[in-house]
Amino acid sequence: MSRGSSRRTAWEDVPPARKRAIGKALREVDAACDRTARVHIDPIGAVRGRYRAPRDLELAGLVGACVAFGNVKTLRAKVEDAFDRLGPNLTAVADDELDVFARLGGWRHRVYIGEDLGRLLIGARRVQRAHRTLGHKFRADLDVGGTLKGALTRFADSIREAGGLHVAARERRGAAHILPDPGKTSGCKRLLLYLRWMVRPEDGVDLGLWKSVPASLLIVPVDTHIHKLAHNLGFTNRRTMTWAAAEEITSVLREYDSCDPARFDFPLCHLGMLQRCPSRRDSARCEGCGVIDVCRHWQGAAKR
Ligand code: SF4
Q1: Contact 237, 228 (CB under 8 A)
Q2: Domain chopping of the chain, boundaries
Q3: Does the beta carbon of 277 lie inside 6 Å of ligand 1?
Q4: pTM of the full predicted structure?
Q5: N or C terminus: fewer CB in 10 A for the chain?
Q6: What is the pLDDT at residue 138?
């Protein structure tokens, strides 16, 4: 919950014994998650499978995270197509604006066209060049003071301006939305996902590239899977995936790991994908769910 907010959260009424049971379930879900297998069906798999150099990875990660919308199979194919076009040396290509636009000509995903993606990449590369790495730029934005949200807003604004997205946005929705604006109320799932990839320690999924940014600061990127599970476990009663919901969910996960609350994001998200969580009692779909013993839909019910 935001500091200063007087809103009572769902979590404050959860008894200690139930909190302990939820902690046990979370640790078991985390331990059981087959990251090696699951990374291949996650957007980060397209980034890791393609690039090795840190500067390429932080650019590719931004591209991958910013188009991480909708069906994972479709979006993976779109990201792979963009990387096929851009080739193996991303930083070098991103230095040549005309080449980027030529390579991405005809690329399209939802409201985004190749020019939108190109401007994102060109802007990110210009900021990277100016600060040596995007990680240095983000650290500098954090050092200005204030919140993670404020730093992320400054970071996104600088890329938007460097790539000309702020001008293109007057004409096209894709240009306006490809880089989320943390200054608004949206949950900014895609930018928070990018931060998780860059900041969390290398674990076969996250990359651990931005070591000067503490993982304790991260806010969990709330997609539909995390939102459902967080609601089912009593972390939040908020119905929309806003920034406030992301903060509320993260504050609960901080009770289980104050140094690295976002460590639960990948295993929980993939649990939700595997179970196709129905958010109601459904014997077939809930079978084998790692949090069934603490899910609000199964409280007091026989499991079969
Ligand atoms: S037990 Fe069922 S409803 Fe509850 S979180 Fe798991 S899949 Fe979703």
Answers
A1: no
A2: 1-32+219-304, 41-213
A3: yes
A4: 0.94
A5: C
A6: 98
